[in-house]
């Protein structure tokens, strides 16, 4: 069985591609390299193209059985400054991909959604039935596509799984691939970099939140746990493929355990053996104090739970960062 992985030269897509291959799937990566890296795609077939390019997609879709869709713009702040860019790629581009997949006879689709669809929820942990009220264009673009998948499932029998990731972090234990974003905005790589002699100090946004130590609490999920969940999602779609009705499933992917910014800083200090230089700034508007997943549905429906903890995340990210800086 062959899977098209859009955004496969990016951070999470490249890890999922390896997990798929380990489970015996054929994998074709599709990426326009706008934010991806050839080295993350090494060892895989990479078709360079844009998800909005129907003609480029057609022959590739003709030779796969399912799509895993990671390709998107994914900076919340940038989406507020430049919503047009986000709706063009994450909605218009994504719909071109979806329609092309449908036209090619594909009925299985796995989508990278986000906890950003929940906005600023009142309750924690967050279950899937929590109202989806995104507070920025990035979250709105993810919600739009979830809704499109649901409508396509009812109307056309497309079966889909939307995976709402919480905070992806860490790196493949092989040290071959890991997190590469430019600019980097994620806490784990920024904290690790701030412990190196030449890295910039970490800026912490707010220490007066209503949390135990005053800093924001998030649910950090190891990228290889996420990758495994994608394989489970695909198996879920395969098992139900004979069903007459469609079906669109949405599940949270998190550990169910929150860690504050300062806890991540401490974990980074333990991994590197050096202090993380940091400054404390004001809160960022729209940053909820606590975002933690209720992962029960992923366990009951997909049989998936996270296996790795914060120490695993930080140590694998540190191993990758060291290897990456010595090889670049
Ligand atoms: N990193 C996180 O913590 C996180 C959390 C929730 C959701 N997500 C979602 O997961 C997905 C992957 O995130 P990531 O962190 O790996 O990002 P990433 O930027 O590393 O990967 C995205 C990849 O998509 C490619 N791409 C973007 N637009 C494209 C287009 N029009 N055509 C073809 N390729 C295109 C980029 O070149 C890049 O390789 C995204 O959809 C993101 O919104 C990420």
Summary tags:
328 residues, UDP-galactose 4-epimerase, domain 1, alpha/beta, 39% helix, Rossmann fold, 10 helices, binds nicotinamide-adenine-dinucleotide
Main beta-sheet annotation: 7 strands, parallel
Any idea what the radius of gyration is? 19 Å
Helical residue percent? Answer: 25-40%
Secondary structural class: alpha/beta
Quote the distance from N terminus to C terminus. 35 Å
Series of secondary-structure elements, N-terminal to C-terminal: EHEEHEHHEHEEHEEEHEEHEEHH
Total beta strand runs: 14
Bound molecules: nicotinamide-adenine-dinucleotide
CATH hierarchy class name of the largest domain: Alpha Beta
Number of helices: 10
**CATH fold call of the largest domain:** Rossmann fold
CATH architecture of the largest domain: 3-Layer(aba) Sandwich
Record the strand order, biggest sheet: 3-2-1-4-5-6-11
Strand-residue proportion: 15-25%
Low-confidence stretches: none
Basic shape: globular
In CATH, what is the homologous superfamily of the largest domain? NAD(P)-binding Rossmann-like Domain
Provide mean pLDDT, rounded: 95
How many domain regions? Answer: 2
């Amino acid at each position: 069985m062959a899977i098209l992985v859009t955004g496969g030269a990016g951070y999470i897509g490249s890890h999922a591609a390896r997990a798929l291959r380990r489970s015996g799937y054929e994998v074709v990566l599709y990426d326009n390299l706008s934010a991806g890296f050839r080295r993350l795609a090494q060892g895989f077939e990479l078709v360079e193209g844009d998800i909005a390019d129907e003609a480029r997609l057609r022959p590739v879709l003709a030779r796969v059985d399912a799509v895993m869709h990671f390709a998107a713009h994914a900076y919340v702040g940038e989406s507020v400054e430049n919503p047009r860019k986000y709706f063009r790629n994450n909605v218009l581009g994504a719909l071109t991909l979806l329609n092309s997949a449908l036209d090619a006879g594909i009925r299985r689709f796995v989508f990278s959604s986000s906890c950003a669809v929940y906005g600023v929820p009142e309750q924690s942990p967050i279950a899937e039935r929590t109202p989806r009220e995104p507070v920025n264009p990035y979250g709105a673009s993810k919600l739009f596509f979830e809704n499109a998948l649901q409508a396509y499932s009812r109307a056309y029998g497309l079966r889909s799984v939307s995976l709402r990731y919480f905070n992806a972090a860490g790196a493949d234990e092989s040290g071959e691939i890991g997190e590469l974003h430019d600019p980097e905005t994620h806490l784990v790589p920024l904290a690790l970099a701030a412990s190196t002699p030449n890295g910039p100090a970490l800026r912490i946004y707010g220490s007066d939140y209503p949390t135990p130590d005053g800093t924001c609490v998030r649910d950090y999920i190891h990228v290889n746990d996420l990758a495994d969940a994608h394989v489970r999602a695909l198996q879920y779609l395969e098992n139900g493929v004979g069903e007459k009705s469609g079906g669109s499933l949405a599940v949270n992917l998190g550990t169910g355990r929150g860690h504050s910014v300062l806890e991540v800083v401490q974990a980074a200090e333990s991994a590197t053996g050096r202090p993380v230089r940091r400054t404390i700034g004001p809160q960022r508007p729209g940053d909820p104090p606590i975002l933690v997943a209720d992962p029960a549905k992923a366990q009951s429906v997909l049989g998936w739970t996270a296996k790795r903890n914060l120490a695993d995340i930080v140590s694998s990210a540190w191993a990758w960062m060291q290897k990456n800086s010595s090889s670049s």
